[in-house]
Write a structure and sequence with these properties.
18 strands, 19 helices, 16-stranded mixed beta sheet, 516 residues, alpha/beta, globular, 33% helix
Length: 516
């Protein structure tokens, strides 16, 4: 048809394809490679490191192999197609055996660090270690059978993870020093949760990703031991340490410095003293992502170092996060701030500070004052943010804590000059709405316009508007009216999983902006 374009009317479709005379459908003439590519398009997620895919994708692959003999031959001859739909959590023993036969010894993906596998047939899975590309299991104990399995050579292994989920007496909780008989040359990622490992193990020397999270009951390595280990992992790009640094005994010996020239993603969750000691002894380049959670916060030299550490690196995120999304979670004795260009729940920079138990010398001063230097570091990011999610939890009877948190909420709103969408989660509106009411009744028009001048959308999630007898919705209605009067109306309001009263209907009828 394309060749005849412009040379008169096109031929009929049947004549053009000659389908009626050949008796062979066009798709049956496709090369096997193209047909296989079509099959693979049904796997919307990458096969690598995933052990499962959605049920509809599994059904599609199985159905494609049952259309005709040709299609079945193509599907059965491509082993990776079958390894990608294995589900060791849900599949029966018989179907698992069938898929293993079709996989033809291709590398397998059993579990992933974010969703460790709990297979029905653990013995079968343990026998497959030498064939695995990723091997991440959730187990109740490090049994002798399991420990023997991870002593087998694993020439294909790239990702190894153990999630130890035990109850009562833990038993063995430490992995052996020598893993996979010293034969795992492709191992690049290790993810450990609630289990220990030998800090002197040579198995981690080629890693690019190491994530370790332990229960509080375990005694983790000291800062010194961590620094020595990291000096032997020069290619590391991603590092997560959560509640895994033990407090060391006082010593006059200086700590070594760990060189991590390729690190780009760091996540650290430890008490203030351990955070400061660790961060002050690592040499790292500018980071793409940083997550820092520290508790037992106090105004001391360790706190001052954390401020300097963030200040030296904040320019990178200030430049990169423009018109992005921010997240602020406020509690009576903790603060969570994050910023991202894409996803506020997976931010490029986030900090979580907890100062529970801290008592100031002057009890009349709000407790939050001493962390103001940390808050100010986020000022440029919040200034440019177009979307902000706020969640507020107040479970303290101390009125000074409530006043401090309200002051912080006002600070965030005042400096969010470019904010277009405000997401309020939980009971945060109980804190913010009275503040908005104060600005509405203020006689200074400039003050009114200085609060969220660019705001166009409000999004409420899991808010109980009946808890204050409908006062919150009355304030919201007054705020919407006020925005119309000053010429910057709110264009959209969304309620998700909210407990609403009759005031909701008056907002819908009066402004017509509501979406559920």
């Amino acid at each position: 048809m394309l060749r005849d374009f412009g040379k008169g009317p096109p031929k009929r479709f049947g004549a053009c394809t000659n389908y009626s005379t050949s008796g062979i459908s066009p798709i049956s003439k496709l090369p096997d490679e193209i047909l296989l590519s079509i099959f693979l398009m049904n796997l919307t997620r990458p096969c690598r490191y995933f052990s499962t895919c959605p049920e509809w994708q599994k059904r599609t692959i199985r159905s494609a192999s049952q259309v005709c003999r040709h299609w079945r031959a193509v599907a059965l001859n491509y082993a990776t197609l079958w390894t990608s739909i294995m589900d060791f959590d849900k599949d029966s023993f018989e179907w698992t055996q069938e898929l293993l036969g079709r996989s033809k010894q291709m590398p397998l993906n059993i579990g992933r660090h974010v969703a460790a596998c709990r297979p029905k047939n653990l013995d079968l899975v343990l026998d497959l270690v030498p064939q695995c590309r990723s091997f991440c299991l959730e187990v109740e104990a490090l049994t002798e059978r399991f420990l023997n399995a991870i002593q087998k050579p694993a020439p294909h292994l790239e990702v190894f993870g153990v999630h130890l989920k035990w109850e009562g007496e833990a038993g063995v909780t430490t992995l052996p020093k020598i893993l996979f008989n010293g034969d795992a040359p492709k191992l690049r990622e290790v993810h450990l949760k609630w289990c220990r490992f030998d800090i002197t193990t040579p198995a981690f020397s080629q890693l690019t990703c190491l994530e370790v999270s332990w229960a509080h009951g375990f005694v983790g390595p000291t800062v010194l031991e961590w620094l020595n280990l990291l000096n032997n992992i020069p290619r590391l790009k991603k590092l997560l340490i959560s509640e895994s640094i033990s407090k060391a005994l006082p010593s006059t010996e200086p700590l070594p410095r760990a060189q991590l020239p390729h690190l780009s993603d760091l996540s650290l969750s430890e008490p203030l003293a351990e955070c400061s000691s660790f961060l002050s002894h690592i040499d790292i380049p500018p980071l793409d992502k940083l997550s820092l959670t520290t508790h037992k916060l106090r105004p001391n030299p360790d706190f001052n170092f954390i401020v300097r550490f963030l200040e030296e690196r904040m320019d990178r995120w200030t430049r990169n996060i423009v018109n992005g999304e921010c997240l602020a979670i406020l509690e009576c004795h903790s603060l969570w701030l994050g910023g991202s260009n894409d996803n506020p729940f997976d931010p490029d920079i986030c900090v979580n500070f907890d100062w529970e138990g801290f008592v100031q010398d002057q009890p009349t001063d709000p407790k939050i004052h001493f962390i103001q230097p940390l808050i100010l570091l986020f000022l440029p990011i919040f200034r440019s943010a177009r979307s902000l999610r706020m969640h507020y939890l107040l479970n303290d009877d101390d009125p000074r804590n409530s006043r401090s948190t309200k002051n912080l909420a006002v600070w965030i709103l005042r400096f969010s000059r470019n904010l277009v969408t405000l997401h309020l989660m939980g009971d945060v509106y109980l804190t913010l709405f009275p503040l908005l009411e104060q600005f509405i009744v203020s006689s200074t028009r400039d003050v009114r316009k200085s609060i969220l001048p660019s705001l166009r959308a409000l999004d409420f999630s899991a808010c109980d508007f009946k808890i204050d007898d409908g006062r919150g919705l009355k304030i919201l209605r007054a705020f919407l009216k006020f925005r119309v009067e000053v010429g910057v109306p709110i264009e959209t309001i969304v309620f998700k999983m909210c407990n609403l009263d009759e005031g909701y209907q008056s907002i819908r009828e009066g402004f017509g902006l509501v979406r559920n």
